[in-house]
Design a protein that fits this description.
two-stranded antiparallel sheet
């Protein structure tokens, strides 16, 4: 029981690592573009994670963690911000290889504008709920920069990958919230759940993956490799 969260992290990443050496996708060749962005994004999200833990937005069930803590966070929670982005970028790259299609630019823009409006409305309406406020403010800022400022051409591919990533998202987050390993304070969120998963988790995950993929594409393009 003490290693349940650690086991979830292991299962999250073991298959993407093993399949990285597939002769077709050859994902291992892209590993060097993942780490810089993952470190930067990790610092941003771990800052919020520490704050959320201190403020009681969520807390961890000691029965399912090994007991090693860094800045009040279980080691497993820190690993989560490595294993999940790595696995989702793997999904993103596999889809880029096998799916030779992406959403039209106009459709992508409308999705982004809709998400921007929803984020702005929910962040304003629930400004007194820390998790909701931070989640939708962060997503609003990231989407605004990526869609409206940089006009990223890969965003259409990202939305498809995000939809696919919801399958493992429901498995992993479903386990974390149903066992439960991570417990949420409903006074700090909308108190609306999909199964056992807080509604905000879907968009917190989107922001996490969006930032990681954004940096991944940036460092890959900077090296001269086209996405």
């Amino acid at each position: 029981m003490k290693y349940t969260y650690l086991l979830i992290n292991f299962l999250t990443i073991i298959f993407p690592i093993a399949l990285s050496f597939d002769k077709r996708v050859q994902f291992y060749k892209s590993w060097r573009f993942i780490w810089p962005g993952m470190i930067i994004t990790g610092f941003v999200f771990l800052f919020w994670d520490v704050l959320f833990t201190v403020k009681g937005v969520w807390f961890f069930n000691n029965d399912y963690i090994a007991g090693i803590r860094i800045l009040q966070l279980p080691l497993e929670e820190i690993l989560f911000f490595l294993t999940v982005p790595f696995s989702c970028i793997f999904i993103y790259e596999c889809l880029n290889y096998y799916l030779k299609w992406q959403l039209p630019a106009q459709v992508t823009k409308w999705i982004s504008v809709t998400l921007l409006l929803v984020s702005l409305i929910l962040a304003s309406a629930y400004s007194h709920r820390l998790y909701t406020l931070v989640t939708f403010t962060l997503l609003y800022a990231l989407l605004g920069v990526i869609q409206l400022v940089f006009k990223a051409k890969w965003l259409g591919k990202f939305y498809i990958a995000y939809l696919v990533s919801l399958v493992p998202f429901y498995i992993v987050n479903g386990a974390l919230t149903s066992i439960p390993i991570v417990l949420y304070n409903n006074q700090q969120n909308m108190a609306f759940r999909v199964g056992t998963i807080p509604f905000e988790d879907h968009f917190y995950s989107m922001a996490l993956l969006l930032m990681n993929v954004g940096f991944f594409e940036y460092f890959r393009t900077k090296s001269g490799i086209k996405s």
